[in-house]
Amino acid sequence: MKKINIENKYSQVEDKILAAANDTFIQYGYYGTTIEKIALKAGVRKASVHYYFRTKENMYARVFKNNLILVFDFLNNQESHRSNIVRQSNYQSTEKRKTLTLSAWFIINEIKVNGRIVSEIISLDEDVNRLISSIFNVTNNLAMLEKLILNQFTEIVNQNLRYTISGAIKN
Prior knowledge:
The protein is mainly α. It is 85% helix and 0% strand.
């Protein structure tokens, strides 16, 4: 008889739900995200989402914190500050940069749009409080965030221009 590692199975389901929650919150924000959307994306029942995270707020807090950690780790990587990796074209094409940029957009947008909820998370979680302070109280970090977001914005505009121009040429 094959022995099944139940702990590992639970961890995999929880990780799948958290990944789906991350994608959904980044795409739709707090108010546009539902437990149903997360469950559908994760391929699990709504009851499973409730079992692992209890509430939408708990999932959101975890997603927000994970994205803060990702951005914090990037900003505090001394090599990225020295080489100004954001401007390097090989970095711009990587999946890591895309993930990092989405995280930065998500954090800034959620602070702006859902300030009350983010304030609650900051006041309840000391780690989030320290991360926010570390990121937003350092001028060099703000400059790096600005470059990340400007590069992404430029990329979006350029893609839209190429799409518009190619559509005009076909017509």
